[in-house]
Fold these 4 entries.
Entry 1:
Amino acid sequence: MSVWTDPIETWRAWLAARLLGVGLPAAAVDALLTALGAAGIVTGCLLFTIVLIWAERRLVARMQDRVGPNRTGPQGLLQPVADVLKLLTRELVTPTGADRWVYNLAPILAVTSVLAMWAVIPFAVNIVGADLNVGVIYVAGAGSLGTLAIMLAGWSSNNKYGLLGAFRAVAQLVSYEAPMLLSLAVPVLLARSMSLPAIVAAQEAAWFIVLAPIPALVFFITSVAEAGRAPFDLLEADSEIATGYSVEYGGMRFGLLMAAEFLHGFTVGALVAVLFLGGWQGPLAERYPLLGSLYFALKAFAGYFLVVLLRTALPRWRIDQMLDLCWKFLTPLALGALTATMIADKLAEQIGSGLGPRLLALWIANGLVAWAAVWLLARSARRLREAEEKAARLRHRRAPSVPVAITPAPPATAASKTALEQPGT
């Protein structure tokens, strides 16, 4: 055992030997090491959020042909640090009439929900906080805590705009959990396990995005909506409800809400990498876990780049468009893809045990689901266009014919004739 083959266990063994040497009991040493591991994950995620804020601001600026932060520190690297210091030194003001306990609890709950997801995400073959046999359910439950935090923040602020943001959280976040959970069931079905390390290990032969591209797309879209990122940022629409649920928050309370939002955006990329892109899988990843962590980071950043790209490229959707996309398209699509995957995977088992029959059956199933979705969309668009044309024809028929009065031109005078005969008129 060495740092290159098992870095976490090497560190634990070294530290445990030192603690046992000073007379601490084994149970206390084990509890202390677990607490230190949890504290390391939390601290690393919070510090990494500062880097994410700088990277996203620079990336969005480049996409929009701007410069971005470039004054505080080289290339603006110290701008997030300056922002954190500013938030820490601002006065914490609680609005009159607010529910004080719930108002203060909401930002903590928001950032805790995102940090809790990282406890089960495998960074490498033997680098994971906790390998739960219900890891997928744990991730879904931890994400629901973030939804609850947004609702509590808007409701407890005693502000009408914050309350509207909480109402939108109920409409948006709770709705998009349905297609997200349906798409989450697909990697569980393909891996025959709810454990995230087991799902990553099951993608050794082929990534699940190859076997199930439609569930991967549905999961990515619904995860962006669950994170409240653009174009699904109706919870904090500046032009409509003045930042919504966070309108009454200032100082480090606001900082915690924003840290949760930025970290959640990267968490979406990490979950997509684990569930559909093979996680840490790659050449020599099992032999050198640190190399596997690099593969995982690159895949997570690729997913995060798409999240930022959506924020930059697409405008904010209306509430009716967002709900129509969820209930009329994504939910039926996810349900159809899950059903087709179940049937195709079972048929592939009857045909043969190799990757070829399974890949062929799942590709055919996803192709049929995609064809059905496109056909239904085209049919719906055609019916809508025909209804609009029929309504336009009825309006044209019912429009009264209004006679147009024609006013005769006045008789030409001598002055007007002279002016017309002059050059240049």
Entry 2:
Amino acid sequence: MRLTGHELKQATDGVWRKSEPEVIEGISTDTRTFRSGDAFLALRGPNFDGHRYAADVAHQARALIGDREGVRLWDDLARPQLEVHNTLEALGDIAHAWRQKLQHTTVVAITGSYGKTSVRSMLHHVFTALGVRSHATKANLNNLVGVPLTLLDIPAETEVALIECGISESGEMERLADIVAPDVAVLTGLATAHGEGLGGLHGVIAEKTKIVDGLAAQGWVLLGEGVAETLVAAGRDIGSHQSLDPQQQDYVQWALRGRSLTLRYLQQQAQLELSLPARHWAANMALVATMVLRWFRLQEREVPALADVAAALQDWTPPGGRMRVLQGASLTVIDDCYNANPVSMQAALDTLAALQGHRVAIIGDMAELGEEAEQLHRQLRLHDVDEVLLIGPLMRVLAETHAHARSCHDVEEAAAWLATHRFPVGSTVLLKASRSMQLERLLPLLGNEGGAHAV
């Protein structure tokens, strides 16, 4: 980013104290990772106050940004200080000001109940492989702090910015939509995820689709598999913006046989081999190919062949914890323990069931599902699996209908059992649960801590 002191003042409706800097080229919110020359913005949380740590980095900071109460602690710090009403709101306002300057960047907001990170990762990989200057959300920086920081980190020469937007409470998406003001909104899938904070499936749909409200005048919407039908069933209209869904001619079609994926677009056809027979990967790849081809066409640039897009997808490697295939000496582990909801859990179980050989499902509780949590766990379909290890009090309900399943209260009990249990050589083991279950702690017991395979 590059904003003048005056632009920062206008964006935040703040007041400069002591002096006003000519220009600010970066914002940091964490003293532990502070970049010399940035402005330090002090956030508040339930158990911390960033204002109290500003002195640690003030000598390296171009400026300090704090609220009225916080700047009182900075009287002895000889640095320009921007006083704002609320620092979290100011962070979003500053990010939006920089986003408005990115006139030659296509800003893509990616949201949904599942598939956000994989789609973002695929898009970034494919655009980069095709020579497009792209920038994307890193790690899980997809909330009201992470999204602004991602925007502020976008270089001015970026052609495509891929911004992952995640929420857990009502009102958050409306704010993210205002901050990002996307040119394209991607809805990967809709299901009961974070239903506890959003009010069930209807609440999830109402909140997630608010990303569309922030679209630019000529913006458009790209829908993942099943989203259009879910919106119709819920009576949710995404407005007058043009939308593209898998039922339309301009959308890349797909067919999966085993691990062989065929993509079709108009008169073109391309094939690639997946490391897993994962239907949701195939659907996501069709979405990604659709996005890439349409972007080139709208930019009036030479549209790449479908085969070139498929070749880039062939080289994509899943992010850690998201259906990443880890090959050990005696076992294959599918590391999908980063997070879980009913749709993604069922997709992972179906993928495991489609494999050959001895199949083991190690699955843990899915969090934040609200009043329907027990029912949603009970409805999971466990089929064509040879061994099942259930972890957590919610997953225990599956033991009632699956007599061969073993149930553990928590990951510690599961670890103790795994320490003495041996799966047959050549087995495939799926690990999946919500992040709070910490199933990644079981990876060392399975002899798989690295060595991810590409698709």
Entry 3:
Amino acid sequence: MRYVKYYGPVLALLLLGLAFRPAAPLPKVVIGYVGGYRGLVDVSTINAAQLTHINYAFVNIDKGRAWLTNERTDTVNFRKLNTLKTINPSLKILISIGGWAWSENFSDAVLTEAGRRLFAHTAVDIVRKYKLDGVDIDWEYPGIPGEEGNVYRPEDKQNFTLMFKAIRASLDTLQRQTGKKYLLTTAVGGSKSCVDHTEMDKAQQYLDYVNIMTYDYKTEGSTTAGHHTNLYAATGDAGGSSADRSIRLYIEAGVPASKIVMGIAFYGRAWQMKDAENNGLNRKPVKGVRGGGYTQIKDSLLTSGGYVRYWDDSAKAPYLFHPLKNIFLTYDDDNSVQHKCAYVKQQELAGVMFWEYSSDPKGYLLHCINKELR
């Protein structure tokens, strides 16, 4: 009895420690984009244990410099995001520069060698100042139009590569000062045009990961309604866009599979259709309507009784159709994510990334990703 009394508390503490031991690190990267452009981020809602990287979106460009347009809230967000490392010490936090709305100044900023040095220095200075882990570039898009009014020119093709060279050199200088490894990544479009207007074989040598935006294949302005984040070509559209096609394009362009990160959409896209023909798939829409985030789709649209879920086995992608309102909605769900994660493992890719964390606040898809990638 005395023996049990003495060792009982020790044994209890040992078992408690085992019960709350952190999960083993993920064998693949799981990169979540977190939108700080809206203002303060509620970091208490972020499941840091299920992420390997957070890409903070977005940092702007002003007069050739990486610029915190929302400095008052950005700096608070940086500090709070860094506290997540108490939960997951291996978590990496990067600034993501650009995005759809803030890419208009890339071409001018990196046009000259002096400009590239200035841009690289100011980007890395944000990393240094706020004790972050690297830089992600989301230039939409070099050499081709993105948002209306964006500056783009033929020289972007070479300057895209030289920009990464300059940032890598600046990060390496910081690494020599701190002894810490810093990351350089990029988000790239999934189209052949995006590949053709870059030198990915040369650019990849400076990059840790190439995050392919394997979503938005269909947008509000598309002439047909269809899958926006399908793994393979859709039924009835064998030559259409898909994640598989995009990934193969980048591998053919010289990016190692081990650096490629597949995109997953945490949001849906939807269209008002003229009628119920083919449940909207591959039919001409009347107009785009709000799609919503996955938590809303799962908890509201799928339980309201109005929407019917369909599965396109060729595309490995779900879609919804509302037969009374004639609304078609394309999205990722647990089933499509399972297929995507299996593909990542089969093709020996680096992992997955997703846009954007707040679209699935209950973490349905993030939990699925972690389950499938372990």
Entry 4:
Amino acid sequence: MCIGRPLRILEMHDLSALCEDPGGARESLDMSLLGAQAPGTWVLAFLGHARAVLDAAEAQRVHAALQALGAVMRGESPDIDECFADLAGREPQLPEHLRRPAKPN
């Protein structure tokens, strides 16, 4: 399984970027799929490649979800509603193209 992680661009070098995760760890990302981005931009990284540009709030939501997943895997009990605030109090909905058509009456 591949899980995307939010990283903030520190420096751009042609189509690679030096990035930092919210914990301070740094890594180089291939930016071929997104092109050059400004330092400070948040991206979603998969296996060394930037795949999507994120705003700061979305990057924080992804980071909180990954922290919660890690806590659960360690046997801890995080506040799930806080870690998945975008899902709290609602049922997740399938995208329109995956929903079954309504049956005629």
